[in-house]
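Appendix B. Raw example, untouched.
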Amino acid sequence: MIRELLYAESRVTDPYYNLAMEEFLLNRCGEGQSILYLWQNRNTVVIGKNQNAWKECRIEAIQKAGGYIARRLSGGGAVYHDTGNLNFTFITGKQDYDVTRNLKVICRAVSRFGIEARITGRNDLEAEGQKFSGNAFHKGTENCCHHGTLMVQVDLSKLSEYLNVSGDKLRSKGVASVRSRVVNLGNLSPDMTIEGLKEALREAFSCLGASSEEALPLQTISISEADEDVIHALAEKYASREWVFGRKISFESEIGTRFPWGEIQLLLQVNGGVICDAAMYSDALFGRLEEKIPPVLKGVSYEKEVMAEALRRIHPEGEKESIMLSDILQYLNSIEL
């Protein structure tokens, strides 16, 4: 049961520091505590933990504009952040983790501005049929993180300028472009400001963050100099090329498609009919198949039956990952290599 509500807010717009602060809070959260963390990034594309940066965003365009590319801890797809966007993070222990409760906090906060929000798709919040918030999730050893975006007055031209959204993803949502399916909350409620939304979120969190409708006091987290040292060390990881871009391989074969649970891209380097290197990317919100599939394919023949046999040696964790693996096997069986 949640007995203590904590609040943290970043006043800097450096994405690497803000993601480091999030990981610091994830590790700090104690039993019976729930943390709300609010933060903003400037001119940043944030990709999911298992995504291919070269495929998801226009790297050169972002860097020429003095922007940032960052990789978060959670899965899911790429998003664009500027200071017209407010990011939220809910952190609790595994025993108190409740995504629905968190989403109710968001819905209650925006309702203060006359906006009726609804939960839709895998991880979206919509108002008047358009998306204003995307959500993603990460489970640590003891604690869980649920974070997302709140578009208040984002420069929508940057979405199409910086993001490479696949045609399959757009078609699955029945829209023509990434810009056509999103909306700024400020357009729905001209009186909304970032500071006003922060206040509404704090108020909603104090009411719905608890196990009942009775409000709990909200305590602000104090960050010491020693804490700052830890956060800055984590920020170095998030800013590193190794973390942001990962390993890029020269590949001869690409296998990929979109499933109901997300998109996959499997890159293979083949020499003499044998797979000598492999990398997998995905915007899936759950599972760890991106880590499990490449190792079992290395050294096997580039033949569907042999590859499928190697994939069957993977032991899926939980029902969702089992469904994902089954879908991938069916897809592999249906294509021509």
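End of appendix B.
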